[in-house]
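A quick aside before the break. I want you to see a complete sequence-to-structure record at least once, exactly as it would be stored in a machine-readable document. Don't worry about memorizing anything.
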Amino acid sequence: MDEIDLSAHPNDGYFKAVFSDPKHAAMFFQSHLPAEIVARADWSTLALLPGSFVKQSLQQAHSDLLFTVRIAGRETLLYLLFEHQTTVDPLMPLRVLAYVLEIVQTHQKQHGLPLPPVLPFVLHQGPERWTVSTQFADLFELPEELAGTLLPYLPKFQHALLDLTQADPAQEETHDELRLVMQLMKLARTKDLAAFLEWFGSEAKRRGWQVEQSLILLSYTYVLHADATIDEAQIARSLEHTQQHKEPIMSLAQRLIARGRQEGRQEGQQKGIVIGQIQLMEKFLNKEPSSKEALELLSLAELEARFAELEAEYAARFKGR
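That is the input. The structure line, written in tokens, reads:
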């Protein structure tokens, strides 16, 4: 997974970084599309298509990704729209219909007829529960006595929806990677990232995680950008039991120290960050952790030198395994 800048728009950046990977996108669609569609799709053909259909002025509230996949031997487009504004949009069916129309018009210009079906899926992060209809026809006020006559003249359309405010990813998702991503996205919107760190640390200790190292690092980088109040010690405790993920934790330890410098923290605060990372790294190297009291006697420069020694020892011991 490439390095992603999450500083400007962490929600948008994290969504795109995760689901631009066809493997993660396939996990999502396989878990949340109707079973008949999932069974008939050839997921080895899933591919991300370039471009966005959301206007630039709206991209802080909406993000989108378009995929192609063969279903029952025919090309189908899967359109994933990420809704991360703070309020529910009652015009979402109209907005999605406009995106779908632009998608099929673009396809027709490039490839002609026939048009592929487009399956639109809205992923709602919250924090409010999704309370409006997913049916396009429900946007209209029809005279009751003429509804049956008028409906055939209206576009018949709805979008699929996953409302994270009503989902329980920790229990409902079957893939470890999707469970981590969805739980993080759910708790990020409710500003409860301390609960995510506690949950992940507990799960890692209880049963381990079959998760890519790069996804661990990306997710914890998102935590840092999504909530500036998160304490580095909380992150260290959360990662303490992920022994199989030494590489991203090393990178994160370096990033935490760098963040303390960039934010111009006082020397005492920076020392606390480095002390925590030294103790964490000593555990990964199966060393007896130095006492906090002993480490506090050292200067910031001495602590950073100690961390650099541990980093070099880690590289010598584990690189190339």
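Two observations worth writing down. Residues 83 and 124 are 5 Å apart (CA to CA). The beta strands are 41-49, 62-71, 74-83, 118-124, 160-163. We'll return to this after the break.
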